């Protein structure tokens, strides 16, 4: 085993230890490591037992280091869900990407509420200030603030496919969120050298952008700011963001690892052509990218790329012969030794994988045409193609999207982006000299402006093409591993000229396995999924023949934030390849039931839309009705009683409550009844006892599952309902209405029935087989549904 292979295996075993701990598969992974190392020893791929012991130790170190670094709370969590007064020090550059809102990380100096006070603690929190006053833009890194607001804990993922905000911040060692409106003030600035230095850098880049703004207008200014100084420098408008996302070049709107590589690459190209000393060229290049890191405000992607490239370059200085790939793995190990949780950061994953791909593949794609310029152009075109091949699985896994024209768009902008990055950065450095700042920026902007216009037009062109971005099903981890195995095996076979016969056999086996993973065996089991959406409703129902029905769409988004439908239900549908819904049933137009209707209609193909004729005069109901009209969607204002689906013993009926006792809008909620063989389910919307009494006997006969009306409010369950129902599901969460009401809970208990709550049990999945039911609750810890027992 040579040194390079040892470093790679060493790093991979450490990463496997981290993964084993986080995903609770320590014993399984340990067994895999033992069998693999034993096989390698027997085959003499590993020379002796000493190496085996070292590799086992590094695997165990990955587990141990992850266990030490993974915290679940800090001193601030005891103040959760209370009003607090805090003294904080801003430690990140505030972001203002939403109007009248700023957000930043802060170290806690002291914090108190009505019952306790602590100080001199080591904890940081994420602060959000909502204030229309322009003074929020004056908050800078290093400032000390006094704030009064509400302290909360980040929400765990209560649903499959939901973004786990708690875990995201946990990996950043942040366990509390502080929200305030206007009750805050700046009381001082940092007196230490580091704080002053970073603050000065931030002021400098803002001044430089102000000078550029005299010559470059929006959206070109935002693009230049993003490329040179990072995504928190200037915020582009939504139209610009959308065009860059759809064309697959959104990465250039934020200073990224690619910018670091471009700046060093252009400098090294000029240095070598000027015949500067090799070591001098590398050392000055390292200093240049370190300075760039300071100017971008220490953004995580830039930090990772700079550290990665710097350590690789230092390695090349010490030993030019050392494999660049082994240096990359060594750098990855060093970064993860410092913070093992960084492994689960998508930025780290993309930086590492794309860098690995370029190092591995670029030497294989060498061109030997007569003219060097042709070789350079072809090489430049290959870079985005390679990057796209390796980044695509992660894009699909995390975002359920694939940019059809990303390769072409990146090929079109890479040469221009190189010039913009280098000229923009160098001119900004020179612009720090005040007497010549205006002149330097004006001269640079004369070159940059048409190039930035070109980038904008490229983004618009590709974004407006048909199917510029397509939605895809989330690939499994096995599919991603097999995909990478295929392209890496092909690359290695070409690079090292492996035997054609062996290569064909290996690639054939991998391809067969990869293609087999897409074979979808029809699942004939129906299920009912109650999403955990707080004090709101959203339910997905699957029939035996894979037809889907959705009842309600939960809440609208708070202020400018996305709706629950976008964050939870749509993500689940896309992850599971569900593109069509047979029927979307909106029980009534309350915002906690119909809030995500427009989003569902935009993203998912809905064959039938059923709504109530109760059209409240609200902005939400108007938005839904307007969307239906403008987009010519088929919708039915439902009245009476009707079976809307009946196949394979699975029958879905829709009921509009009627009668003298049906008066309020909640009582008029559409009711859904499902009959599957010997089992039945009743979904009450916001209906109450009177709503239930208005139903005909066929819908009240021995109910297996009842979705309690109005989140378990008072007078939604009586003795008759409780005696006649096996299990109640109460869809609820934090609220000011005392849902579920204690009388409702007592009525259920007194009649020997059972209930489950989505606030306590998270998302609940019920699988009926026609005679009995299997019940599962979503576990954030294990990231899957776990079986639970009922009576």
Give the tally of β-strands: 26
Q: Rough shape?
A: globular
How many helices in DSSP terms? 25
User: Taking Cα atoms only, what radius of gyration do you get, to the nearest Å?
Assistant: 30 Å
Could you give the order of strands across the largest sheet? 16-15-14-13-12-11-24-25-26
Distance between termini?
59 Å
Describe this structure in words.
- The protein is α+β, with helices and mostly antiparallel strands and 791 residues long.
- The protein is built from 25 helices and 26 strands.
- A nine-stranded mixed beta sheet has the order 16-15-14-13-12-11-24-25-26, covered by helices on one side.
Question: Which descriptors apply to this entry?
Answer:
alpha+beta; globular; single chain; 791 residues; 25 helices; 26 strands; nine-stranded mixed beta sheet; seven-stranded mixed beta sheet
Give the helix/strand layout:
Blueprint lengths: L2 H20 L3 H17 L6 H21 L12 E9 L4 E4 L2 E12 L4 E3 L4 E7 L12 E10 L12 H6 L6 E4 L3 E6 L3 H20 L7 H10 L8 H10 L9 H17 L4 H18 L4 H19 L5 H15 L7 H16 L10 H28 L1 E3 L2 H25 L3 H30 L5 E3 L5 H20 L3 H17 L10 E4 L8 E4 L5 E4 L12 H12 L4 E7 L4 H4 L2 H7 L1 E7 L7 H12 L4 E3 L3 E7 L2 E6 L15 E6 L2 E5 L5 H5 L9 E5 L11 H5 L1 E6 L11 H9 L3 E4 H4 L2 E5 L4 E7 L4 E5 L3
Parallel strand pairs: 5-7, 13-14, 14-15, 15-16, 20-21, 21-22, 22-23
Antiparallel strand pairs: 1-3, 1-6, 2-3, 3-4, 3-5, 6-7, 6-8, 9-10, 11-12, 11-24, 12-13, 17-18, 18-19, 19-20, 24-25, 25-26
Helix pairs in contact: 1-2, 1-3, 1-11, 2-3, 6-15, 7-15, 8-9, 8-10, 8-14, 9-10, 10-11, 11-12, 12-13, 13-14, 14-15, 16-17, 18-20
């Amino acid at each position: 085993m040579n040194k390079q292979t040892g470093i790679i295996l060493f790093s991979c075993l450490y990463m496997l230890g981290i993964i084993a701990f986080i995903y609770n598969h320590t014993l399984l992974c340990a067994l895999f490591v033992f069998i693999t190392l034993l096989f390698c020893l027997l085959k003499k791929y590993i020379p002796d037992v000493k190496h085996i012991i070292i590799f086992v130790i590094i695997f165990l170190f990955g587990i141990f280091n992850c266990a030490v670094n993974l915290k679940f709370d800090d001193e601030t969590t005891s103040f959760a869900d209370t009003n607090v007064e805090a003294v904080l020090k801003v430690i990140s550059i505030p972001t203002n990407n939403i109007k009248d809102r700023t957000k930043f990380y802060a170290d806690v100096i002291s914090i108190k509420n009505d019952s306790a006070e602590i100080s001199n603690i080591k904890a940081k929190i994420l602060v959000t200030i909502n204030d229309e006053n322009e003074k929020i833009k004056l908050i800078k890194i290093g400032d000390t603030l006094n704030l009064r607001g509400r302290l909360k804990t980040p929400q765990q993922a209560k649903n499959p496919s939901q973004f786990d905000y708690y875990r995201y911040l946990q990996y950043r060692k942040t366990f509390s969120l502080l929200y305030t409106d206007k009750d805050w003030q700046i009381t001082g600035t940092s007196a230490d050298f580091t704080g002053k230095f970073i603050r000065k850098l931030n002021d400098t880049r803002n001044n430089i952008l102000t000078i550029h703004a005299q010559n470059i207008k929006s959206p070109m200014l935002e693009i230049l700011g993003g490329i040179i100084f990072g995504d928190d420098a200037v915020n582009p408008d939504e139209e610009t963001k959308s065009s860059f996302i759809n064309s697959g070049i959104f990465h250039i709107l934020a200073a990224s690892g690619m910018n670091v590589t471009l700046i060093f690459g252009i400098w090294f190209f000029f240095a070598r052509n000027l015949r500067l000393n090799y070591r001098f060229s590398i050392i000055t290049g390292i200093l240049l990218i370190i300075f760039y890191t300071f100017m971008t405000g220490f953004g995580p992607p830039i930090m990772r790329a700079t550290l990665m490239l710097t350590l690789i370059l230092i390695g090349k200085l010490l030993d030019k012969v050392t494999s660049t790939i082994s240096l990359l793995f060594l750098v990855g190990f060093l970064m993860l030794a410092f913070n093992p949780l960084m492994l689960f950061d998508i930025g780290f994953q993309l930086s590492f994988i794309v860098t690995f791909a370029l190092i591995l593949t670029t030497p294989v794609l060498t061109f030997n045409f007569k003219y060097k310029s042709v070789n350079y152009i072809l090489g430049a075109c290959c870079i985005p193609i390679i990057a796209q091949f390796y980044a695509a699985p992660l894009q699909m896994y995390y975002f359920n999207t694939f940019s059809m024209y990303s390769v072409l768009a990146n090929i079109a902008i890479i040469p221009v982006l190189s010039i913009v990055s280098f000229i923009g950065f160098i001119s900004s450095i020179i612009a720090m000299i005040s007497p010549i700042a205006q002149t330097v920026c004006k001269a640079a902007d004369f070159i940059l402006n048409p190039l930035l216009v070109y980038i904008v037009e490229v983004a618009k062109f590709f974004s407006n093409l048909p199917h510029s971005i397509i939605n895809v099903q989330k690939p499994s981890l096995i599919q991603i591993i097999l995909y990478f195995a295929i392209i890496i095996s092909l690359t290695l076979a070409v690079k090292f000229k492996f035997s054609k016969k062996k290569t064909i056999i290996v690639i054939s086996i991998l391809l067969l396995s990869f293609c087999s993973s897409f074979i979808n065996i029809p699942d004939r089991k129906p299920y009912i999924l109650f999403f955990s959406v707080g004090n709101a409703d959203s339910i997905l129902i699957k029939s035996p023949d894979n037809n889907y029905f959705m009842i309600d769409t939960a809440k609208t988004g708070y202020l400018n934030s996305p709706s629950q439908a976008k964050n939870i239900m749509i993500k689940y549908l896309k992850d599971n390849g569900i593109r069509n819904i047979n029927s979307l049933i909106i029980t009534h137009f309350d915002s906690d039931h119909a809030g995500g209707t427009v989003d569902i209609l935009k993203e998912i193909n809905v064959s039938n839309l059923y709504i109530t004729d109760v059209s409240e005069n609200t902005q939400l109901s108007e938005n839904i009705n307007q969307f239906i009209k403008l987009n010519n969607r088929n919708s039915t204002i439902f009245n009476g009683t009707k079976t809307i689906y009946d196949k394979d013993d699975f029958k879905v009926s829709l009921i509009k409550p009627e009668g003298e006792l049906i008066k309020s809008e909640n009582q008029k909620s559409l009711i859904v009844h499902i009959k599957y063989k010997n089992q039945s389910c009743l979904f009450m919307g916001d209906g109450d006892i009177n709503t239930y009494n208005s139903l005909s006997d066929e819908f009240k006969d021995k109910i297996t599952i009842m979705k309690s009306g109005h989140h378990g409010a008072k007078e939604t369950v009586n003795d008759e309902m409780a005696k006649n129902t096996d299990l109640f599901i109460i869809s609820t969460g934090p609220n000011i209405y005392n849902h579920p009401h204690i009388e409702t809970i007592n009525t259920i208990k007194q009649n020997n029935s059972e209930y489950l709550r989505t606030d306590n049990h998270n998302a609940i999945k019920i699988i009926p087989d026609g005679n009995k039911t299997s019940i599962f609750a979503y576990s954030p810890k294990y990231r899957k549904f776990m079986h639970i027992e009922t009576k």
